[in-house]
Amino acid sequence: MSALDLSIVIPCFNENERLPPALRSALNQLGPLVPSSEVILVDDGSTDETFSAMCRLLCEYPAVRPLRLKENRGKGAAAAHGVAHSKGHLVLVSDADFSTPIEELQRLEAALAAGADIAIGSRAKRGAREVDQPAHRVVMGKSFNLLVQALVLPGVWDTQCGFKLFRGDVARHLFGQLKTTGFAFDVEILCLARRAGYRVDEVPVRWINSDSSRVVPIRHSIQMLRDLARIWLG
Q1: Is residue 183 part of a domain?
Q2: Disulfide check for 119: which of 46, 62, 111, 156 has CB 3.0–4.6 Å away?
Q3: CATH number of residue 126's parent domain
């Protein structure tokens, strides 16, 4: 990759404990790629010491760029804020805990090299591997995806895996139009991509469950259903 060819955008909310070890591990895995990348960490109005942790990471890794939203606006809003500040030829939007390990990036890069505009990690495609996924989250995820396929995105098997790679100009175009501020932002991004005629490839990846997920099952499920209804109604 050439200079600053990759931007990694990570929305963060109350990630004081999970973020530092997960990010250090990811950057160590990237190895020689780190100097040609930027890591945009967006603090989504956290109530803990997340932003201080980000600043400490900056002292260790010059590629880190901490950004801060004054109040909690939602994962989609934080992701959009980070993408708007990105400069990379490619943009990876990842969860803070790297449940999809960073080494899976090469699978998504291969899809873009083959002509895709967007490559999305998938836990549902043949060849994917899930580790320690609780039964209730499997049911939630599959139920939500059935609704997504039925209403807005037929043929997409997993919209919610937090590991998506975009051509940089495509990411900045799509996230610039995003209205969904919560967890269902992935659905709207993919709907916008389909309407714009961008090629989206779904790529099987390895995914490891995090016991400290920020998803609150009932509250966030209701929010996501409301957002899905709004997306469906246009």
Answers
A1: yes
A2: 111
A3: 3.90.550.10
Structure tokens at 91: 């943009």
90 domain residue, yes or no: yes
Residue-wise DSSP of 85-97: T---SEEEEE-TT
150-192: per-residue pLDDT in tens? 999 999 999 999 999 999 999 999 999 999 999 999 999 999 9
Q: Which has the closest alpha carbon to 80: 4, 160, 186?
A: 186
Do the strands 163-167 and 118-122 form a parallel or antiparallel pair, or are they unpaired?
antiparallel
Domain that holds residue 56: 6-233
- Exposure of 44 in the CB half-sphere (CA atoms within 13 A): 24
SS (H, E, C) 115-143: CCCEEEEECCCCCCEEECCCHHHHHHHHH
How many angstroms separate the Cα of 220 from the Cα of each of 120, 179, 184, 224?
A: 22, 17, 9, 6
What is the reported pTM? 0.92
